[in-house]
Design a protein that fits this description.
The protein is of the alpha/beta class and 280 residues long. The chain is built from 8 helices and 13 strands. Helices cover 26% and strands 30% of the residues. It is globular, with a radius of gyration of 18 Å. It binds 1-{4-[(3-aminopropyl)amino]butyl}guanidine. 1-{4-[(3-aminopropyl)amino]butyl}guanidine binds next to β6 and α2.
């Protein structure tokens, strides 16, 4: 029997991932992008947007626990959280593990992604039925401009910054985010890999530094994203971010206090990386 294979179309990576697939569960097109759900014997179900793998069932925690718990535990009282993107629900699920969260607004431009996730990824989409969750189908870039001093934590869980997600890495957007955050707010965004997207990481870090007094970078290793050594850019108006400031009282697979502290790059390397002194 011959394998069915799925070759990822990642516009930024110099290599191509090729997955063995046991089933194609869904293929369609929304107003914004091509959506596929495929099943792999190794990774479980995978969500693919415009040819790029976004989540898999097996390793999604390595992304979602990092993107949600680092900013939320760096904040003493994150009651109001805004998630931009994240239509699969994985980040929302992690955010809602915090009892202090009173309201989590998820703004995803593409309603279809949410519907697909509810149908094919029940373990990711559990949070959609939580009474604290508010789901908005709008453009996050526009949505955030309507708020001032509103959110404790803002998380950007977007696709790669090509196409319509590109605006979510501009200096303008970071200024809107800064204004929408309360005076001690924390911001985080997924910002691609150190290996294949170093220039992009650097540019985003430099833009954030123009807007926020505290900017830092932490990483996780994500086997389904070409580049693997994946970065999260974090920016804070007041609180230091390298350690949790509350007891870690949520159930996780990997996140804990030590993990939080280890996720940050050593300061010397971080400085070289952002200044451009570190290159391959
Ligand atoms: N969003 C970030 C996916 C980036 C993938 N990029 C890539 N493989 N080049 C993931 C959404 C999970 N909630």
């Amino acid at each position: 029997m011959r394998d069915i294979v799925f070759i990822e179309r990642d516009p930024y990576a110099p290599i191509r991932h090729c997955y063995t697939v046991s089933k194609i569960l869904y293929q369609g097109k929304s107003e914004y992008q091509e959506i596929q759900v495929i099943e792999s014997p190794e990774f479980g179900r995978m969500l693919v947007l415009d040819g790029v793998v976004q989540v898999d069932e097996k390793y999604e925690f390595l992304y979602h626990e990092y993107i949600a718990h680092v900013p939320l535990f760096a904040h003493p009282n994150p009651e109001n959280v805004l998630i931009i993107g994240g239509g699969d629900g994985g980040t929302l699920r992690e955010v809602l593990k915090h009892d202090v969260v009173k309201r989590a607004v998820l703004v995803d431009i593409d309603r279809q992604v949410i519907e697909i996730s509810k149908k094919f990824f029940p373990s990711l989409s559990v949070g959609f039925s939580d009474p604290r969750a508010i789901i908005v189908n709008e453009d996050g870039y526009k949505y955030v401009q309507d708020y001032e001093n509103e959110f404790d934590v803002i998380i950007v869980d977007s696709t790669d910054p090509v196409g319509f997600a590109h605006v979510l890495t501009t200096e303008d957007f970071f200024r809107f985010v800064h204004r929408a955050l309360k005076e001690d707010g924390v911001f985080v965004a997924q910002t691609e890999s150190i290996h294949y997207h170093l220039e992009m990481v650097r540019t985003i870090q430099q833009r954030l530094k123009k807007v926020f007094p505290i900017v830092d970078l932490y990483t996780s290793v994500i086997p389904i994203y070409a580049g693997y050594w994946w970065t999260f850019s974090i920016a804070s108006k007041k609180h230091p971010v390298r350690s949790p400031v509350r007891d870690v009282n949520v159930e996780t697979k990997i996140y804990d206090k030590e993990m939080h502290e280890h996720a940050f790059l050593p300061t010397g390397f971080y400085k070289k990386l952002v200044s451009g002194e570190y290159k391959y």
